[in-house]
Specification:
The protein folds into two domains: 390 residues, Na+/H+ antiporter like fold (Up-down Bundle); 150 residues, 3-Layer(aba) Sandwich (Rossmann fold), CATH 3.40.50. The chain contains 23 helices and seven strands. Strands 1-4-3-2-5-6-7 form a seven-stranded parallel β-sheet, with helices on both faces. α14 crosses α17.
Length: 568
């Protein structure tokens, strides 16, 4: 058996280089995405040394897009999608029109044919779903009003681009026929292609709503009863990948949209949180390969050889689209903070732009110069996009929380309002899931002053005046944790299940108050040692506590049961 294959080489080179350069970027306090993209440039065909198989990396990256969109669907219900349709649908279509017009104007200045300008403008009009989601997830905005509008906006854009990809070949053929023979366009053929495209998409959505809503949750519940975590993980991956592939093969819908709808249907099941956790490791790994695949497309020579056209293209992508989106959102009556977040989210282009550019080149309506401009603009915009959010964090006006974003009480704070709590000698409960919820209920019963930090909308408890406050956010964020006033707290309960996130929280809480008791949950001795090393006072190991309680119920006394139920 050979020990070197293009597939293994591509995966190893992409992952290892992305890790090294991503870590270096993080060390320099810039987004790790920069490192991932540079890793792609290093293994790409335009730089010396090892060259990874571009087709293989692109296919691996597509898996990342599928899993990422599936994960988004798990946190994005049908109700959420319908709640933003009034702004997402007209807003996305209007922004596509403006960006396409700007791209066509630049193509006219470069003396390109009309259809080339149309394709070029369309490629500049659609943002990268992967980049947008990563930015929203990093800032805990995915489940806010702004996040739902941005995701809904991108879904409309992606749906529109699916129709464009189907209609472009017959449209090109009609255009070329007219150009060569002066023939009239066959409107009937164009309408027929459009009706077929929309019909297939509608059939897919109908099947998912009528059949998938019953079958998909039933499959997961059935597998969950087998008590096999391995089978459950395989079931989740089978649903995500199988539906995405079937949507593309049978209905002509993109992989991303197929996976998104699969996740959205599954979000109505109580197993959706577990499904999201099971796909997380693979999702992150393959999402990194997406950025590596983008970096491989960049020819550094384009940056110098086509400087002025590239500069004009970047102005359209970074400022033309963003300005249009800002004005559209403001015209619909949304606050300035929401408009700025949406415009920053759309200030980049990505995967659909590559696909459209490749199709245009294959059909003979785009030149290699146009494709190079699109690819270079995509990579540069992805590199620059995180800076837009950094500027927003520092200078943008803060928005008052919407009812949809907060618990139904005025004592709930969001990421936008982080004034420090007036509570003192209080308990801080970080994470209000199965464990944190029990702690919170006990503290409520004891009428103890309590502050809960939670970033999942479904888990946020109701605030209760002066005794119970809630901050919606992630406690790993220094500002969020500081707003809970751990310096004056009686005790901090870290009830989040992820050990890495918990470790960050423990370390920062300990820095804010060197003497406060910090009690955290752990799942293994290694996690216990990790949390204790970072400053936890006690850790609770779930499996150990289960065993001890079972022994106590059986009336079996041991030396361990006589000791406190902690590892310290």
């Amino acid at each position: 058996m050979p020990h070197h294959t293009p597939l293994i080489a591509a995966i190893v080179a992409g992952i290892v280089l992305a890790f090294l350069l991503g870590a270096a970027a993080h060390r320099l306090r810039i987004s790790p995405l920069v490192g991932y993209l540079l890793a792609g440039v290093v293994v790409g065909p335009f730089t010396p040394g090892f060259v990874a198989d571009q087709d293989l990396v692109a296919q691996l990256a597509e898996i990342g897009v599928i899993l990422l969109m599936f994960g988004v669907g798990l946190h994005f219900s049908i109700k959420d999608l319908l709640s933003v349709k009034s702004i997402a649908v007209p807003g996305a279509l209007a922004q596509i029109a403006v960006a396409t017009l700007l791209g066509w104007a630049l193509a006219w200045l470069l003396d390109w044919p009309t259809i080339a300008g149309l394709v070029f403008g369309l490629a500049l009009s659609v943002a990268s779903t992967v980049v947008l989601l990563r930015a929203l997830q990093d800032r805990r905005l995915l489940e806010t009003t702004q996040g739902r509008i941005a995701v809904g906006w991108l879904i409309v854009e992606d749906t529109f681009m699916v129709a464009v990809l189907v209609l472009l070949p017959p449209l090109t053929e009609i255009y070329l026929t007219m150009d060569q023979a002066g023939a009239k366009p066959e409107i009937a053929e164009l309408l027929r292609a459009l009706i077929i495209t929309l019909g297939k998409a509608a059939a897919f959505v109908a099947i998912m709503l009528l059949v998938g809503r019953r079958v998909i949750p039933w499959i997961l519940h059935y597998i969950a009863h087998s008590a096999s975590r391995e089978l459950f993980r395989l079931a989740v991956l089978s649903i995500a990948l199988g539906i995405a592939f079937g949507a593309t093969t049978l209905f002509g819908v993109s992989f991303a949209l197929g996976a998104f709808f699969a996740g959205m249907i599954l979000s109505e099941s109580e197993l959706s949180h577990q499904a999201a956790q099971e796909t997380l490791p693979l999702r992150d790994a393959f999402a990194v390969l997406f950025f590596v695949s983008v970096g491989m497309l960049l020819d550094p020579a384009v940056l110098l050889g086509q400087f002025w056209p590239l500069l004009a293209t970047m102005i359209i992508v970074l400022f033309g689209k963003s300005a249009a989106a800002f004005l559209i959102v403001r015209l619909f009556g949304h606050p300035k903070a929401t408009a700025l977040i949406i415009s920053a989210s759309l200030a980049q282009i990505g995967e659909f732009s590559f696909i459209l550019a490749g199709l245009g080149l294959a059909l003979g309506v785009l030149t290699e110069q146009a494709q190079d401009l699109i690819l270079a603009a995509a990579i540069i915009s992805i590199l620059i996009n995180p800076a837009f959010f950094v500027l927003l964090d520092r200078f943008a006006p803060k928005e008052e929380p919407k009812a949809a974003d907060a618990a139904p009480d005025s004592a709930t704070a969001t990421r936008g309002e982080l004034a420090q709590t007036a509570l003192s000698d209080h308990y801080i409960v970080i994470g209000h899931g199965r464990v944190g919820g029990v702690i919170g209920e006990a503290l409520r019963s004891a009428a103890s002053p309590m502050l809960v930090i939670e970033d999942r909308l479904a888990a946020i408890p109701e605030a209760d005046g002066a005794r119970v406050e809630v901050i919606k956010g992630n406690a790993a964020d220094e500002e969020v944790l500081a707003a809970a006033n751990p310096a004056a707290a009686r005790c901090v309960f870290v009830a989040v299940p992820d050990a890495f996130e918990a470790g960050t929280i423990v370390e920062r809480a300990r820095a804010l108050n060197p003497s406060v008791p910090i009690i955290a949950r752990a799942h293994s001795e290694a996690e216990h040692e990790h949390l204790m090393r970072l400053g936890a006072t006690h850790t609770i190991l779930g499996e150990r506590e289960l065993a001890l309680e079972m022994l106590r119920k059986a009336g079996i006394a041991t030396e361990t049961t006589a000791a406190p139920a902690t590892a310290s």
